Amino acid sequence: MNRIRTIGKPCFLLILAFLQVLFFVVMYRRGSSKIFESFSKRNGKNWDYSKVKDIYTNLTLFTPALTDELQYCPPKSPLLVGPLSITFQNIPSLKRILKKNPYVKRGGLYTPPHCQARYKTAILIPHRNREMHLRHLLYYLHPFLQRQQLHYRIYLIHQAGNETFNRAKLLNVGVRESLKDEDWDCLFLHDVDLIPENDHNLYVCDETYPKHFSSAMDKFNYRLPYWSYFGGVSAMTPEQYMKINGFPNSYWGWGGEDDDIAYRVRYAGLKIVRVPLNIGHYKMVTHNTDKGNEENQKRFDLLVKSPRKWKEDGMNSLEYKLISKRLMYLFTNITVDVGVAPKDKKTKTRS
Ligand code: UDH
Ligand code: NGS
């Protein structure tokens, strides 16, 4: 009874209102993700990104083991160095990348030569007309994954033709095609222009939930742009991917498909887990809007329909024409005809 009377008192309500205003001021001034970042820092190492290492340092010291019976790689790789020096000043040639990665086999496949890997990770990159970005990514990603002692393969899912780009559908194709090669533990859905800056950001899936890796991108001042953001780099086990029915095939052009995927995760009774902001640092190669990937004017309508559509638009309705699958020196190139956007789709150039 007494407590009810206290709650009813004007001074109590005033304090409550003050606390509420204070909460919003702090959130607004510092950015919510900055606040969560400080929580995450308490749990982890406070990395100093002004002290960086070359990604190839001492990498080739680990030569093939002399015996056929390899021991499991240690649970924590001794090759990890932390923050890495990433620059886009010179575009490395494929020949140079190849020379620096002598243990990478055709198709962009790697198995540690000195120990038996604990994880098998497939990297799936949606692609068209971004060859320069691809060279930067290959230069940094190969040694990054080798430092983590993973068994891995890099796949490029290349959209043939000049029709509107469809990132999500390309990733569905990548999942289907890569699982024909091997029983991957983990599927990485990786934009071509994002380079991880810290090799402690392990390219391994969370066993229970879909995981977002690019939680702190330089273009967003190393914060999350919004709470449910799931774009850039994320990863799922094949089981998680099938549980959300993969990605929607119906998003043509820029935007919204990553938000749809984030919704699907929830509809399927899962949640998104994230790499802490102090480790999930990524540098983006800056670029302009791509021709053929203009803003999708239908994306908000599609997002509204998402709760009804997710079970029928995805891996279970995926149709495409495989044009070729080539084992290049540093990656597997899957070229695919994903079809065209429905006729009534209107797109406009982003301003
Ligand atoms: N992609 C291609 N080719 C394209 C379009 C997209 O390869 O023509 C791939 C690529 O892997 C890229 C990903 O799809 O990283 C996502 O592309 P996006 O254009 O949706 O996202 P991104 O973050 O750029 O690369 C956002 C638009 C930037 C506009 C900047 C205007 N100042
Ligand atoms: C949101 C988009 C996402 C996009 C994110 C970041 O607004 O697809 O911005 O974009 N969602 C919708 O448009 C509904 S970025 O700054 O990387 O160009 O990923």
Automatic annotation (TrEMBL):
Broadest EC class assigned to this enzyme: transferase
Membrane topology: Single-pass type II membrane protein
Cofactor: Mn(2+)
Transmembrane regions: 12-28
Annotated function: Responsible for the synthesis of complex-type N-linked oligosaccharides in many glycoproteins as well as the carbohydrate moieties of glycolipids.
Domain Galactosyltransferase C-terminal: 211-287
Name used for this protein in its record: Beta-1,4-galactosyltransferase
Gene3D superfamilies in alphabetical order: Spore Coat Polysaccharide Biosynthesis Protein SpsA, Chain A
EC numbers on record: 2.4.1.-
